[in-house]
């Protein structure tokens, strides 16, 4: 069955009211944008491991503490839209990758994708909501799925790099 239904962001700002996660390499970009736009930016570690050998903490993922995101304008549009972070580009897809065996114990594959059905575009378009139930996510969310692939690659690289710790 051919699917012509595609997700199109309505720029409502709903996703900007969630916690925004950043990879370590995105921190510098976030701080530069905050400085340029004269925005306060609070970033806190979210996922970390302890490197016993070198006695330090390694942070895999950070989180922008403010909600809504400081890069959301008062008119509800993204001030850095062309330079969004990976977490923002893949929304409304939420993805988890398990390189261990936790997901298998839950009866899931090593990759798990979920669509945020609270997204305004999905809630206001019944045809889109129906298409999500019967079509591959990459056909409905092509650009968002590309961000998911990028996210997966980065996560696997980080996990592999620090697996020995």
Quickly list its features.
165 residues, alpha+beta, three-stranded antiparallel sheet
Helix content class: 25-40%
Strand content: 15-25%
CA-based gyration radius: 17 Å
Unreliable parts:
none
Residue-averaged pLDDT, rounded? 86
**Number of helical regions:** 7
Q: What gross morphology would you assign? A: flat
Distance between the termini: 47 Å
Strand order of the biggest β-sheet: 1-3-2
Order of helices and strands: EHEEHEHEHHHH
SS-derived structural category: alpha+beta
**Structure summary, number of beta strands:** 5
Largest sheet: 3 strands, antiparallel
Describe this protein's structure:
- The chain is of the alpha+beta class.
- 36% of the residues lie in helices and 19% in strands.
- The chain has seven helices and five strands.
- The strands form two sheets. The chain has a three-stranded antiparallel β-sheet. The protein has a two-stranded antiparallel sheet with strand order 4-5.
- Strand 2 and strand 3 (56-64) form a beta hairpin.
- It starts with 19 loop residues before the first strand and ends with a helix.
- The mean pLDDT is 86.
